[in-house]
Amino acid sequence: MRTSQEHPLERGQLRGVGRRTGGGAGASVGGGCSRAEGELASLKELPTPLPSPYDPAADAKTQLAAAQARAQAQHKLLLIDLGGNWCPDCRLLAGVMRLPEVKSFVDAHYVVVAIDVGRMDRNLDIPARYGVEHLVGVPTVLVADGTGHLKDAGHVAALADARSMTPQALADWLARRTP
Prior knowledge:
This protein has helices spanning 60-74, 88-97, 100-109, 125-129, 167-176; strands spanning 77-83, 110-116, 140-144, 150-151. The chain is globular and about 35 Å long. It is built from five helices and four strands, in the order αβααβαββα. The protein is an alpha+beta fold. The chain has a single domain (8-176), classed as Glutaredoxin (3-Layer(aba) Sandwich), CATH 3.40.30.
């Protein structure tokens, strides 16, 4: 539910997530770049170990039903994160979503459910419900409204190469999916 105050993520100005100050164009991390304390310039600076958000023993259908019910009750979007703990891009995305600045935005706009799809051979009925018959890569992120209607279907595999993105680019992707 939107409030009158705009979240910093919606302005693309996350202090501490991919934005650097000082040094001008072409400034680099380290030599001459004066970054704010705690600011991340790259995914390599995420806290380690990276999270392992996918539970291979979980009942994916039950997880999804509970998350969809919460999204509908809370008037939020449902973010279905399809992946596996073996996947570095999946774990990087989870790490970015746990950064305090991003987490507060995600918690305000989304109910997140991480569904383990193994090596794209498990729980494939979940993406199929949303018209995604074949996973091109993971993480595959589906954004649906509380009633389960898929939004922005053309970009479900956009984060499958998350490691090539900055923390700010990942945060911006999440922000663009909100109304």
